[in-house]
Amino acid sequence: MAPPQSLAATATVAAALVATAAAVVLSSVLYRRKCGRLAARVREVEAALAAATEKAASERRGRVRAQQSLRRAVSEQEPRSDEARSAMAAAAPPGSYPMAPIGTVQSCFSTRCCLPSIFVPDFHALNGTPRQPLVVTLARATVALDPARVPAAALEGLANYSHCWILYVFHLNTDLDKMWKDPARSKLKAKVRVPRLKGDKMGVLATRSPHRPNPIGLSVAKVEAVDGHAVLLSGVDLVDGTPVLDIKPYLPYSDSVKGAAVPNWLEVDGALAVESIHFSEHFISALPICWAHAQKQSLYTSADEFQDLIKQVLSWDIRSLSQRIRPHQVNMETEANDHIGKEADEHHGDKACCGVIYHLHLEGIDVSYRIDQCSNVVVEDATLIPGARNQNRHGYLAWRDKLAGSGL
User: Fold this and answer.
1) Cα–Cα distances in Å, from 211 out to 55, 104, 172, 240, 403?
2) In a domain, 295, yes or no
3) How far apart are the first and last CA of the chain?
4) Is residue 190 part of a domain?
5) Do 114 and 73 have their domain in common?
6) What is the chain's Cα-based Rg?
7) 377 lies in the same domain as 282
8) Does 72 share its domain with 155?
């Protein structure tokens, strides 16, 4: 039989172990509760951020619509006579060079890349044009010149070139009016975030950013056909409605520089390429219905060719940096919280990663898709965009005779 001192010591140790276990359990419960409160606070902050993002996006859309309406009204009131234009030029401030567009782009891209409307699971985001020209060879557009400014004879000989340069205005920038009327208040950003640098900044003049001291764009495109006051192009990165300032032929002997160097961060192949693209059965069944309404004014010969366009556009991740990162950040936060409160946070994370719906507007058709963390794309649906088509648009039927021998 063990001595009383040994029994007392054993009882003391057992009591200490029980007390320690109880303290551990209590600490664990308190820790879980604290983490639960923190997770709830994180969700509250996310909701507040979603509301602020939606408000900012709504205000931005309102500014864009207001500026577009103002520009249309101003363009309608612009003097058409040469004498009136000369008077306006003479009245311009010294050192300025007033210009007016010579034409407008009728593009397959109905919208450019836009900010998401809400930053919550199942939010919708708009995406549009490729980041650079000639990346999407099937991307087509017509440049319709203004007959009052440019006679048809000005295009004579352009069809003999394979490619041309398009100089245009980034007309969807929201700070255009402020930049032109009061440059001192425009607050031009000297550095901008670069997609290939994953958010790192570079000097704006060392990038192709649309937010420039003068919002002028330069793109090269393939000349498919010329007819009257219109030019059909392919490989474009221009959004519908873009004002065109000039067209110049592409000259390989001078425009292509042998041995030209670029920074190392631009030499990374496939930096924005996706892994796979899959078309759902629902999309396959919805596309012919949309195509029956859109084909008359479309620049494409068939629904199959239009589907090839979608595949080319989505083969590169055209989302903005914030759109690519935010759903994944939410999912990563959730995975960390799985050790705390698995059921609620796990469900929240799955929705954040997989519930984001992106929209691509092409030829008056809204194409919705999802993309996961591994860059696998699933195209889910196609619907018509109400009122998106332009009755004066040059469609494929208008170009058919010109394209008879081109293979398009």
Assistant:
1) 22, 20, 10, 18, 36
2) yes
3) 101
4) no
5) no
6) 29
7) yes
8) no
Same domain, 48 and 162: no
Assigned domain for 146 exists: yes
Whether residue 245 is contained in a domain is answered as: yes
Number of structural domains (the chain) is 2
Q: Based on the domain organization, do 62 and 146 belong to the same domain?
A: no
Cα 318 to Cα 163, 214, 242, distances in angstroms? 24, 24, 19
Q: Measured between alpha carbons, how far is 362 from 341 in angstroms, rounded to an integer?
A: 43
pTM score, whole prediction: 0.71
Q: Are residues 305 and 259 in the same domain?
A: yes
229 and 111 together in one domain: yes
Q: Is 267 helix (H, G, I), strand (E, B) or coil?
A: coil
Burial of 354 (0-12, 13-18, 19+ CB in 10 A): middle
Task: Print the domain residue range for 131.
Answer: 103-173+215-327+354-405
Q: For each of the chain's 408 residues, which pLDDT tens digit applies?
A: 556 666 667 777 777 777 787 778 888 888 888 888 888 888 888 888 777 777 776 776 676 666 666 556 555 555 555 555 565 555 556 667 778 999 999 999 987 654 343 333 344 445 567 778 888 999 999 999 999 999 999 999 999 999 999 999 998 887 776 666 666 666 778 898 887 787 789 999 998 888 888 889 999 999 999 999 999 999 999 999 999 999 999 999 999 999 999 998 887 666 678 899 999 999 999 999 999 999 988 999 999 999 999 999 999 887 776 677 665 443 333 333 443 333 333 333 344 345 688 889 999 999 999 998 888 999 999 999 887 666 678 888 888 887 876 667
The H helix count followed by the E strand count for the chain is 9, 13
Burial (CB < 10 A; 0-12, 13-18, 19+), residue 125, is buried
- Which CATH number belongs to the domain containing residue 242 in this structure? 2.40.30.70
List the strands of the sheet with 276-279, edge to edge.
124-127, 357-362, 365-371, 376-384, 276-279
